[in-house]
Fold:
Amino acid sequence: MRLVLDTNVLIAAVVAEGLCRDIVRRRIKAHTLITSQPLLDELADTLRAKFSVEPGDLPLLAAYRDRAEVVQPAALSAPVCRDPDDDVVLATALAGMAQVIVSGDADLLTLSAYEGIRILSPRQFAELLDAKI
Structure:
């Protein structure tokens, strides 16, 4: 499966034990990760601003960056999300031909899908994976 992990999922994986960390550490190994430079920049900015952490100092994120396919976000013909900042997640997924976006962001989750790309919460994504076992 081709996946985009929203920044909030990666931040949650870094700062707390729980489902997001489990997803990032174990459950995505067999899948292709898609990201973009704007998403990587947002991740770095958030880690620095909110947690005073350099992304390069976190082995989990270094492994993520090394594994992920970095794409140029597609141009969207019009704003899609009620929070326009979230459109880059959709544009990245579209460019990377993702099948699923995993996000904890209500502005994305309210869409449930975009251009055939499912938008799932971390819990929904874990349930999807568990159902395929």
